[in-house]
UniProtKB/TrEMBL annotation:
This is DUF4429 domain-containing protein. It comes from Streptomyces olivaceus. It comes from the Bacteria. Residues 259-286 form the SHOCT domain. InterPro entries: DUF4429 (IPR027860), SHOCT (IPR018649). Pfam families: DUF4429 (PF14472), SHOCT (PF09851). Residues 12-106, 140-232 form the DUF4429 domain.
Length: 289
């Protein structure tokens, strides 16, 4: 066990080759930190260390993650608020001398190992599957091998209902695009790969794209949707060259199927679904029983 430096919401344990960050659980601790639990950051994943004055009599010790070393930071793409930065340790100002000592120690550990170039692989572990969260227009689930979107009849657009529930094996994905639910139009979009292996262009509107789920007030919060996006990103990068493995669709609850057929009928009556689309989708739903 190495030396431990405790601050607000987290404690950092300095080991010979890494920093183990343990986040507190409490009503004042950001929910993202609580969801992460703890993270081990190898020295080779750190690009630099800073110690700066904070607000209201505090100092902030921060490690700068190396570009491409952490799937969570890559998925966030600069959208995290400062208070939710998992690489900041806020301490009382009276502990500045101690914090300076550890900053110097960590800088010494980096030495020539400090890297400014992007990492060629993720060095910080992603959140582990299975993961799921409720979006405004459906439920997103990830079991480590495939992502599934199951549409909500109260929130999904007719375009998504026409397309049906979606299943995306990791081998078919080229990446993930996450827009914070704290933005006006937050969403999680999966970026499929085309036949040539390149990432296919995404649809312009997430609410019409079957490869996306959209967020809303209380739907897709950061502490649920961001770890989800990071886990998918890590799985995409770690996937092997093998061809996609088919993932069998789970059998559905008959009551759920009946509700979906009823809603499909409403779309048909409103003229949003053609006769052919209604018949085809109804047959598809009945086949899932």
């Amino acid at each position: 066990m190495g030396d431990v430096l405790a601050g607000f919401h987290a404690a950092w344990e300095f080991e010979s080759d890494s920093v183990l960050i343990r986040y507190e659980r409490g009503i004042r601790t950001p929910k993202l930190f609580q969801a992460l639990g703890e993270r081990r950051v190898p020295v080779e994943a750190i690009a630099g260390v800073t110690l700066t004055p904070g607000r209201r009599g505090t100092v902030v010790l921060r490690v700068q993650p190396r570009e491409g070393a952490d799937p969570l930071i890559e998925a966030a793409a600069g959208q995290l608020k400062e208070s939710c930065d998992p690489y900041r340790l806020v301490l009382p100002a009276e502990r500045e001398t101690l914090a300076e000592y550890y900053a110097d120690e960590l800088t010494g550990m980096l030495g020539a190992a400090a890297h400014s170039e992007p990492a060629d692989r993720y060095l910080v572990a992603a959140p582990e599957a299975p993961l799921h969260f409720k979006a405004y227009d459906g439920k997103a689930s990830f079991d480590g091998k495939a992502v599934s979107f199951r549409w909500s009849w109260t929130g999904a657009s007719s375009a998504k209902w026409k397309a049906g529930d979606q299943l995306f094996p990791v081998a078919d994905l080229g990446g993930v695009e996450w827009r914070s639910p704290e933005a006006l139009e937050g969403y999680l979009r999966l970026l499929p790969r085309d036949a040539a292996g390149a990432t296919a262009p995404a649809a312009p509107q997430a609410d019409q794209d079957p490869a996306s789920v959209v967020f809303g007030l209380g739907y897709g919060p950061v502490h649920e949707s961001l770890p989800f996006a990071a886990a998918v990103l890590a799985a995409v990068r770690d996937r092997g060259p093998a061809t996609p493995v088919p993932v069998p669709a789970p059998r559905r609850d008959p009551a759920d199927i009946a509700e979906r057929i009823r809603h499909l009928g409403e779309l048909h009556q409103q003229g949003l679904v053609t006769d052919e689309e209604f018949s085809s989708k109804k047959a598809q739903l009945l086949a899932e029983l």
